[in-house]
Amino acid sequence: MKPDQPNPSEPFPRQTIPPELVEWARQTFDEEEFLAQVREIEATGGLKLEDFIAEVEARARSK
């Protein structure tokens, strides 16, 4: 494979994440909240598309 050809196993090129974005993500991410939501999904099986498709369609129409 030539160096200038994209690697087919990587559909998106890798780029460095700006430090400001990493810092913002660290400040806004709540690990406990995330884990609580994951546990809820594991316990309940999560939502089916039918449970929220009307909301997605309404948002799409409003734009």
Could you list the spans in which at least 5 consecutive residues all have pLDDT below 50? none
Described by the principal axes of the CA atoms, the overall outline is: extended
Number of helices, counting only DSSP H or I runs of 4 residues or more: 3
Look at the structure and give the mean pLDDT: 88
Strand proportion, as a percent range, falls in: under 5%
- The gyration radius over C-alpha positions equals 19 Å
Total beta-strand segments: 0
Quote the distance from N terminus to C terminus. Answer: 43 Å
What is the H/E string?
Answer: HHH
The level of helicity is 55-70%
Largest sheet: none
Helix/strand structural class: mainly alpha
Q: What can you see in these coordinates?
A:
This protein is mainly alpha-helical and 63 residues long. The longest helix has 14 residues. It is extended.
Keywords:
63 residues; 0% strand; single chain; 3 helices; extended; mainly alpha
Summarize it:
60% of the residues lie in helices and 0% in strands. With 63 residues, it is an all-alpha fold.
Helices and strands in order:
Layout: H1 19-28, H2 31-44, H3 49-62
